[in-house]
Amino acid sequence: MKSTLSSILVGCVVALALPWAHLAVADAAPDSAIRYVALGDSRATGSLHDPLSIRDGCFRTADAYPQIVADTLRAESYVSRACAAAKTENITEKTQFTITGPQPPQVGALRPDTTLVTVSIGGNDIAWSSLVEPCYTLAPGLDANCRSDATTAQRMNDALTVLGPKVSATLAAITEKAPAATVLLVGHGGIFGDRGCWPYIPTSDADAAFVVQFFVRMNSALADAARSNGAYFVDVAAAAVGHDACAGSDLRWFEGLVPRSFTMPLHPTHEGLRAMAALVVATRP
């Protein structure tokens, strides 16, 4: 009888406990709030439609792709530390001096509870625009033939050799500061297509295609760095085919050496920034 009574009491206790156990599990569900930090260079600061963007020395504006990402995902918190002219060292350890004062290393914005980080970096480390300058011509119809220049090829090779390790170290530093965050590294490219269009892209068609291949290699180095650090690579160049600086105003995501809008030369337009934001959202797991 005692055994039967004990069994009944235990059964009642378990039955009563189960609903509370269920609630306890529900209460302990993972926090789904998005706490987002954007890091990087001028590709992440926005276009120059807002003259007041100069006020912080970094040229951050409301149409920056990270701001669009934050709005789209309805982030609980969002902060951008992206700054024009930033290099990998300005993300990790070195103060960046701007016209309005010093900007501390960008990783200072990261917290252990940060859940999302985007990074646009690497172009200033290798000064990519100077690497393609030998491809420019002084008049339409000319061919600089930079694709056959050994010096240009060597400079590009040397730059890409050091790029991967720098970006990899940067991603490692980000993960150390925000170990729970999903990190997305945004790729380069898209400005150049398979043809020139003087003076916007002042190259021959053959040299324009050569520059495209340089960005293919650059993005390969970035993708490898992302993969080795558990980050996700956002392939902007692949999606931007047909939207380069030579495209019509209704298709163009980037401006060329001579801009046709309130956009910095060789940077994404407002439409390009929206496209980049969509790619980030689509790549995010």
Number of domains: 2
Helical content stands at 40-55%
Compute the number of helices: 8
**Morphology:** globular
Record field, number of beta strands: 7
- Return the structural class: alpha/beta
- Straight-line N-to-C gap: 58 Å
Radius of gyration: 24 Å
SSE order, one letter for each helix or strand? HEHEHEEEHHEHEHH
What is the CATH architecture annotation of the largest domain? 3-Layer(aba) Sandwich
Keywords: Disulfide bond, Hydrolase, Signal
Pfam family, one: Lipase_GDSL_2
EC number: 3.1.-.-
Protein name: SGNH/GDSL hydrolase family protein
Structural account:
InterPro entries: SEST-like (IPR037460), SGNH_hydro (IPR013830), SGNH_hydro_sf (IPR036514). It is an enzyme of class 3 (hydrolase). Residues 38-274 form the SGNH hydrolase-type esterase domain. This is SGNH/GDSL hydrolase family protein. GO terms for molecular function: hydrolase activity, acting on ester bonds. The protein is an alpha/beta fold. It contains eight helices and seven strands, in the order αβαβαβββααβαβαα. It has helices at 2-27, 65-73, 88-92, 128-132, 150-177, 205-228, 236-239, 270-283; strands at 35-40, 77-80, 96-98, 101-103, 116-120, 182-186, 232-234. The protein has two domains: 1-30; 32-283, Rossmann fold (3-Layer(aba) Sandwich), CATH 3.40.50.1110. Residues 1-29 have low confidence and may be disordered. The N and C termini lie far apart (58 Å). Strands 2-1-5-6-7 form a five-stranded parallel β-sheet, sandwiched between helices.
